Amino acid sequence: MASTVKGLVAADSPDQAEPADTSVTKRRGARLRGLVVPLMIIAILEIVVRTGLIASHLMPAPSELLATFEHLAQGALWKHVLASSTRVLLGFGIGATAALLVGALVGLNKRAEDYLEPTFQALRAIPSLAWVPLLLMWLGIDETSKVVLIAIGAFFPVYMSLVAGIRNVDRKLVEVGEMYNLPSLERARRIFLPAAQPHLFTGLRNGLSMSWLCVVAAELLAATQGIGYLLTDGREVSRPDLVLVAIITLAVMGKVSDTALKYVEQRTLHWRDAFAGDNA
């Protein structure tokens, strides 16, 4: 039995292949539509700031932000971006890996759920910022405390989604594995993991987003470089343009990382015949 879940889904799915040029045109159209709202916001802000409806010392015009970005891009901006990105990748990798191991154990084993689930549900309710003082006392202000905070933030979305994905696997698929007398590990690899992948990727994307939130929280409190540090620097010198450039940089980095993970999701789950939304 090659891949049970993929085989059953493929057998029931109609052939909905479309020409490559049509698919490319649709993707380009979707990207262009995604630019409409940001361009409208930029145009409106430029107008209201230039006309004096909003004070420029509170909200710089987008053209001024562009000048600030160009100036920072020639200096320390990339150092801050690299520092934050490295922390996010390390923390997210550690947190997601731990969530995969624990989530698989809890999802597949009812007794493990009885022991672990109440504790994890209680820990999940603790805000990420509440861990900061304790981590600073335990681990100091170096990189370890920041990476651990990010790992904690990334753990719970991935863990919750994986457990939900495993528990939502169709029992008929599990019965197919039992008919073939598959060992537990084989059933997990061939049935539970493929069937739970949609939930898992949702959790990974949420965990990655939470990682960016946590890295900013860590860098706001104790850092000498990073995007969070850039936010603090802009606040201390009363420069809203620095703060806004840091916020925009965070948005761009979050979007880039989420797009990369979404691409992996689409490549991994290409066998699904899922609803993609109406064009109305």
Break the fold down into its secondary structure elements and pairings.
Layout: H1 4-12, H2 20-34, H3 36-50, H4 62-73, H5 77-108, H6 110-124, H7 132-139, H8 143-167, H9 171-179, H10 184-221, H11 227-236, H12 240-268
Helix pairs in contact: 4-12, 5-6, 5-8, 5-10, 5-11, 7-8, 8-10, 9-10, 10-11, 10-12, 11-12
Q: Could you describe the 3D structure shown?
A:
By secondary structure, the chain is an all-alpha fold. It folds into two domains: 35 residues; 207 residues, MetI-like (MetI-like fold, Orthogonal Bundle). The chain is 78% helix and 0% strand. The longest helix is centred in the last third of the chain and has 38 residues. The protein starts with a helix and ends in a 12-residue tail after the last helix.
What's the short version?
The chain is mainly alpha-helical and 280 residues long.
Give the domain tally: 2
| Corresponding CATH architecture of the largest domain | Orthogonal Bundle
- Given the helix and strand composition, which structural class is it? mainly alpha
* Helix residue percentage: over 70%
Strand content: under 5%
Backbone shape: flat
**The CATH C-level class name of the largest domain:** Mainly Alpha
The radius of gyration is 23 Å
The major beta sheet can be summarized as: none
Low-confidence stretches: 8-17
CATH superfamily of the largest domain: MetI-like
Cα end-to-end separation: 41 Å
